[in-house]
Design brief:
Length: about 525
């Protein structure tokens, strides 16, 4: 017994956080992290993510206020890659972590991160890759080629963090080394001219991501190419085609290919150090979850991921059992409301949401789930539609008063008119535009605004809104539809779109692609798509 006690004390001394792991929440300006961890490690992880955001803002010259609380990225840290794959669902063989961009609810689900060695931690690399996409979509509405967006995400995802607060950005992407040397080759010309790449036979995983990183890194650091990258982006922004812009900016593709391959074989590569005093990070608060919050966390993660008809039944049964144990825990009641909604139980959703709001009127998820349920009831009512939609708007109006820059009230104010077959007033259109400004990464929301602008005859505005969707490298069917819409507008600027639906519920559920988030929630509850999972 004495030796066992000594062993436990030694473990506490050598691994002080290991025995104190518990569900914690770290809250900062741009992220909310939930992890079963110790406070020291979670605070360090949160600080690294905030420094990463600050570094990208510095390098892209972006000055923007922090998002509203509900529009931050929520990161759920689970125990292992196996747990991630189970949460992801079908087609998850190579998934090491994933990200879902949603208005008012963007989230990432990753395995536990070792913040002490973040430069080589696969979970951290995945998360940084995805947040790079999130940041760049938010920073600019200009369309960017697939190789550029993936090359940039790889460039930033290999960042490392020092204990003095400094960072190094643009380190070699060692996780792509095997791909670059052993996977089927991809030429520079394939990246710069997507029509050439599309003509290739794609039977196996190739070096697209690795070569995109290599080209991005080379153009960023090689002195002989100084200014060419900026010129390339400028030409794209002027409307020139991808191949034409690349040829004018970079010159002969064969020479560029040889230069890039020589660059790869260099014994050393440049990187960009950033001093800690240039990375301004706001306050980080860490709190221990209540017993109810910790108990309901598995339900919360599965609900936020998205459920189908069968899994919704098991999730709501689990939520009810936990709510019976913690009948006045507002977080539990809010998650119960969400599980009831996903299971198709509108009255039960409203009851759970009202119970949460009776305890704490600031519970945003309770307003959201109640609003969803009332909207679904309004869709199905045979009675007074106008009255039903006024009732449905009420929770979102209350949420708007609570959190003025939450995008969902703006989205559902617009929808309340469209779903009745009425022309939305200017205020509703302006609100939808502002929702896209708040959540430019939600491509389903962009599709809805694109349809609205087309129906108003605002052709140029519609094409600007739809362009990032069309160029989304993981957009699947939604990207194809956006591309077709832009082509139709180019051919016939007077086109006003289809006669019905105005594009609502255009969620791109093709097994891949972006999730449309709040723009389509009151429809059927289905698993949501993810962007660029690890290993993609």
């Amino acid at each position: 017994m004495r030796s066992m006690i000594m062993a436990c004390l030694l473990a506490l001394f050598l691994f002080p956080g290991a025995a104190r792991a518990e569900w914690l929440e770290a809250s900062s300006d741009h992220f909310v992290i939930y992890a079963e961890d110790n406070e020291r490690d979670l605070r360090k992880f949160s600080d690294q993510l905030e420094r990463y955001h600050a570094a990208m803002a510095l390098l892209f010259h972006v000055k923007a206020p922090p998002p509203s609380p509900s529009n931050r990225v929520t990161v759920y840290v689970v125990g292992s890659e196996q747990a991630v794959r189970k949460i992801y669902g079908a087609n998850s063989k190579y998934i090491g972590g994933f990200y879902l961009p949603r208005a008012g609810g963007s989230l990432a689900i990753i395995p536990r991160v070792d913040a002490a060695k973040s430069a080589t931690d696969g979970s951290m690399t995945t998360l940084l890759h995805e947040y790079a996409h999130h940041f760049m979509i938010s920073a600019t509405a200009m369309q960017r080629p697939k190789w550029f967006t993936e090359g940039a995400a790889e460039f930033f995802s290999s960042s490392s963090f020092s204990s003095d607060g400094s960072m190094v950005v643009g380190r070699p992407a060692l996780h792509r080394a095997g791909e670059l040397f052993y996977a089927p080759d991809v030429k520079v010309a394939d990246l710069l001219d997507p029509t050439a790449y599309d003509k290739r036979t794609h039977r196996n995983y190739d070096a697209f991501y690795g070569k995109s990183w290599l080209l991005y890194h080379y153009l960023t650091f090689d002195p002989s190419r100084q200014g060419q990258f900026s010129r390339y982006l400028q030409l794209l922004d002027q409307g020139k085609g991808q191949r034409e812009a690349a040829a004018e900016a970079f010159g002969d593709f064969e020479k560029l290919e040889k230069d890039v391959e020589r660059y790869l074989m260099r014994p050393k590569m440049s990187a960009l150090p950033i001093a800690g005093d240039r990375l301004i990070v706001g306050p980080i608060t860490v709190r221990r979850l209540t017993a109810g919050e910790a108990a309901i966390m598995p339900v919360r993660i599965r609900s936020k991921r998205g459920v189908d008809e069968d899994s919704a039944k098991s999730v709501v049964a689990e939520a009810r059992a936990i709510a019976a144990q913690y009948p006045r825990d507002v977080a539990v009641l809010g998650e119960l409301a969400e599980a009831e909604y996903d299971a198709g139980n509108d009255k039960e959703t409203i009851a759970a949401a009202d119970a949460a709001l009776a305890v704490d009127p600031s519970q945003t998820n309770a307003y959201i789930q109640k609003g969803y349920a009332l909207f679904r009831e309004a869709q199905e009512t045979d009675g007074d539609k106008a009255l039903a939609y006024r009732r449905a708007r009420a929770p979102f109006v209350a949420l708007n008063r609570l959190e003025n820059d939450h995008p969902l009230p703006l989205i559902y104010y617009y929808r309340s008119f469209v779903e009745q077959g009425e022309q939305p007033p200017k205020l509703a259109i302006d609100g939808l535009i502002h929702a896209v400004e708040l959540a430019p990464f939600d491509f389903g929301l962009r599709m809805n605004l694109g349809w609205a602008l087309i129906r108003l005859g605002r052709v140029d505005d519609a094409k600007i809104i739809l362009a990032p969707v069309a160029f989304n490298p993981h957009g699947g069917g939604m990207a194809q539809r956006a591309t077709e819409m832009i082509a139709r507008l180019d051919k016939d600027p007077s086109w006003k779109g289809p006669e019905s639906s105005a594009g609502l519920d255009d969620d791109g559920e093709d097994g891949e692609g972006e999730d449309s988030g709040g723009a389509s929630k009151p429809g059927a509850s289905t698993p949501k798509g993810a962007t660029a999972p690890a290993g993609s």
